[in-house]
Amino acid sequence: EVQLLESGGGLVQPGGSLRLSCAASGFTFSRYAMSWVRQAPGKGLEWVSAISGSGGSTNYADPVKGRFTISRDNSKNTLYLQMNSLRAEDTAIYYCAKCLTAHSSNWYYDFWGQGTLVTVSS
Amino acid sequence: EIVLTQSPVTLSLSPGERATLSCRASQSVGSYLAWYQHKPGQAPSLLIYDASNRATGIPARFSGSGSGTDFTLSISSLEPEDFAVYYCQQRLNWPLTFGGGTKVEIK
């Protein structure tokens, strides 16, 4: 059974940093590209960042480019999102999501975690 | 950036009725479009990918159609568990984008 478990969310002041983790199980983690998607309070889904299965290719949404870094440790089956220079508008539930197809750029998401809440406030 | 516009924002229907949701892209995405269902407090679920392919385990009452810029998600006969928010998503270009969502609520 595929499981994705996010952690690392919490309350942080504007300008601060957080690192989110997503522990994956139930599938061969290194074969699948992964992403982070967020949902601000009362808003819709917003794609944040994506990383290939090897970790060699990454992409970012413009609002987070230069502030967030996606990475993965395939030996630990874990996805990360390092978030720096956080702003109030980064307040959201952050979901990690697994891509549908192994070894491809098929950027649809067939499994999602339950999410971790990040609140940026003074 | 490809903008996806979903309509209507809210759809009020009764169980057993047919639901028709629309997603329009600001430029052609070919068939590279997916639909998700999202219930409060739960993880989103993939329903349809590549415009018309049902994901594993998705009931046949869900169907997707369209190509280019105009797409439709149909639910043939609403079950109580189908009342939720639905999003479309394109994967043609970076950045990946989602539509604003359509809430299907009980009338």
Explain the overall architecture.
The complex is a heterodimer of chains A (122) and B (107). Chain A has 122 residues and is an all-beta fold. Chain A is built from no helices and eleven strands. In chain A, strands 2, 4, 5, 6, 9, 10 and 11 form a seven-stranded mixed sheet that branches. In chain A, a hairpin with a 4-residue loop joins strand 7 (68-73) and strand 8. The model of chain A has no long low-confidence stretch (mean pLDDT 96). Chain B has 107 residues and is mainly beta. Chain B is built from no helices and eleven strands. Chain B has strands at residues 4-7, 10-13, 19-25, 33-38, 45-49, 53-54, 62-67, 70-75, 85-90, 97-98, 102-106. In chain B, strand 9 (85-90) and strand 10 form a beta hairpin. Chain B is globular. At the A-B interface, strand 5 and strand 10 of A face strand 4, strand 5, strand 9 and strand 10 of B.
- Specify the overall morphology of chain B: globular
Strand content of chain A: over 45%
Biggest sheet layout of chain A: 7 strands, mixed
The termini of chain A sit apart by: 40 Å
Number of strands of chain B: 11
What does the average pLDDT of chain A come to?
Answer: 96
The low-confidence parts of chain B are none
Q: Please report the number of helical segments of chain A.
A: 0
What order do the helices and strands come in, and which of them pair?
The complex is a heterodimer of chains A (122) and B (107).
Chain A: E1 3-7, E2 10-12, E3 18-25, E4 34-39, E5 45-51, E6 58-60, E7 68-73, E8 78-83, E9 92-99, E10 109-112, E11 116-120
Chain B: E1 4-7, E2 10-13, E3 19-25, E4 33-38, E5 45-49, E6 53-54, E7 62-67, E8 70-75, E9 85-90, E10 97-98, E11 102-106
Parallel strand pairs in B: 2-11
Antiparallel strand pairs in B: 1-3, 3-8, 4-5, 4-9, 5-6, 7-8, 9-10, 9-11
